[in-house]
Write a structure and sequence with these properties.
Two copies of one chain form a homodimer.
Chain A (H helix, E strand, L loop, with lengths): L8 E9 L16 H13 L6 E2 L8 E11 L8 H8 L4 E9 L11 E9 L13 E2 L6 H11 L1 E4 L14 E12 L2 E8 L6 H13 L6 H9 L14 E7 L6
Parallel strand pairs in A: 3-10, 5-6
Antiparallel strand pairs in A: 1-3, 1-4, 2-3, 5-9, 5-10, 7-8, 8-9
Helix pairs in contact in A: 1-2, 3-4, 3-5
Chain lengths: ~260, ~260
């Protein structure tokens, strides 16, 4: 064997993170990001520079229970040793829960068929030492029926320009929202969103708009008119990032 | 009215805290403690020095969802304004969820008829960015049936000397354990303990001993023999504090 390294492998990882205080997924100079931390420590483990591809570029402060990334390596570390090795180097805010070798063609971003996000809110008057990192504190009663009615207007295939950061790069702003369901557990409200893709800030603008419905500041019907307007100003405010969590990324079975 | 302050009131508070990095409940010089933080900020709100009495002196790192405290004040701040005023001053790790005026005789510690604690563990191989502050990471399969069988031996009225820190001050080490129930939710195991009182480290030594049963290092039967031995060395190790949470304090209805 002339090759000092191993054969080239494509490795897929499942990554969880508490995004509090992190500058989001995407690597940026002089900032702590999930991609940056993964690349830095994988470089040590694999013995060469690593480029990590993430399924979703979550914003600063957003969390993940099921982010998916992949990277190519000719290092010799066994695949099943990668989570333990990586978790011993990563800060406690980030954890790799699984690693597997996948087809060389697998691309965590381009092959993603959909994503599920969950947004959490705490509605009791008092803040919570346990939930404040992971839930938006809206200390007022919210009209669940109105918020669900508003959410229903968004389900389906639509142009989501109104629910997308004005600065977003995407040219085609049509997406298919497969589910938008509110659930209540005590003082905690959660909105689960499943779509074939999310535009920049889409989940947070949907939440911010529906909360305006829940507070009685706009009717559920205005969610439909906002959608039709195809301009950012027609929708509501962007909900804060810390209530949002990337639950999972959906792939065709064959590619993962 | 000659009195510059208001009439003397006895106020009961419900307090929640994430104990991470705090030096426990009891005030100590030059340490951040729950009692110390409450007394410092209540002093500002009430306009005079405040002495806070807590139902349970939780250890450093232990959390609370339902700690109960009381204090006497002749300050004029309305009782229902105290939570908002206090929460605006307290660090985000501590929150007061309720305040009410109670009989002048009410004493949060002496009047407590019982307490409920919950201990949480994460058993999956990988640590968790979300649960690591609140659950002991035991990355091995645990025998739930064995741990429950061991727990059953402890239910009832017993001398818990074996399950008490050797340095504990209590002379009478008999307590009545009313419930000791394990529950499993995915990778998370939780033990709920309800007793008329807890000796120093009692909950954590019970958990540490039962986990040794769960790992197969001792039989469930040895929990009974440990109890009978009435010496600390007969029981298992003390589980770490960060898995423990004071759920609630039980009072006779009349006193609260």
């Amino acid at each position: 064997m002339d090759d000092p390294g191993g054969r080239m492998r494509n490795i897929k990882l499942i990554v969880q993170y508490d995004g509090t205080g992190l500058a989001g997924f995407q690597a940026q100079p002089a900032q702590r990001t999930i991609q940056g931390e993964l690349e830095r420590h994988l470089g040590k483990i694999c013995g060469h520079a690593i480029r990590v591809i993430g399924a979703g570029r979550t914003d600063a402060g957003v969390h993940a229970l099921g982010q998916v990334v992949n990277f190519q390596t000719h290092g010799t570390v066994p695949t099943d040793r990668i989570p333990v090795a990586l978790n011993s180097l990563l800060s406690r805010q980030i954890a790799v829960t699984a690693a597997e070798e996948v087809a060389s063609s697998f691309h965590a971003q381009y092959d993603a068929r959909g994503k599920a996000y969950r947004y959490s809110m705490l509605t009791r008057p008092c803040r919570s030492p346990f939930l404040d990192r992971f839930a938006w504190h809206v200390p007022k009663p919210l009209d669940m029926a109105g918020m669900q009615a508003g959410a229903e207007y968004l389900v389906g295939r639509h142009d989501f320009t109104s629910f997308c950061a004005a600065k977003a790069e995407a040219a085609d702003r049509r997406r298919e929202l497969l589910a938008a369901d509110w659930a209540k557990s005590g003082d905690v409200l959660r909105l689960t969103l499943v779509a074939n893709g999310f535009l920049h800030n889409m989940a947070r603008i949907i939440v911010g708009t529906l909360v305006e419905v829940g507070l009685g500041r706009r009717s559920a019907e205005t969610v439909r008119t906002a959608l039709k307007a195809r301009e950012r100003a027609a929708a509501g405010r962007t909900a804060p990032p810390h209530g949002l969590c990337l639950l999972r990324v959906i792939y065709d079975e064959v590619s993962a």
